[in-house]
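User: What would this chain look like folded?
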Amino acid sequence: MTSIKIRVGSVPRGKPTPVFLDLFCRSLIILCTSLSVVLSSVAVCDGHWLRAGHRMFGLWYFCSLEDQQSINVSSNCTTHLEESGVTGAGSGLPVCRSVITLAVVSAIFGLELLVMSQASEGRDSSRRWTLGAKLVLLAALMSAGGVGTFVLLFGSYATLLGFTLTFWCQFTATFLFFLNAMAARHIQNISMLPPSGKPYKL
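Assistant: Here's the prediction, encoded as structure tokens.
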């Protein structure tokens, strides 16, 4: 039998994605990425991530806490991380904070590209959105590496209640970086689906 080619116009095409839904999802991704950048920036600038007894371990310095009359707490802090007594802290923590700081920078540039993509149209908008999503994903990977390095360095002192609020801010920011990057890539893949109207064989 001879194959008959029938060109179908808009029949096989499903319902197009509503413009409002697409704009809402992209705006939500940008908003959540902005929140992640703020959380990660606060966590890096504060740097107090772990408290173990009378010691406070941070990204930038090590503090020894001393109780005075059980009410006031004074701290003796030093940037010489070798004095913390943790093996590898002197070389591991500089790498840890450098990676996390670069993650914040990558997320900021990624966020800027995501916002700029909404102010342009066509292929430029698509390229900026894709590159922004990749930078946010890179930020998630670097941030996860930095958090993992910190936990490995101070694993013998770490307890669930010992981690401070700023550490959990960084942990949440890492998780949000990853979710936003994957959501941004997924939305872009949906918008770049091949057009319908291809010939079908019967």
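The CA atoms of residues 86 and 129 lie 43 Å apart. If you want, I can go into more detail on any region.
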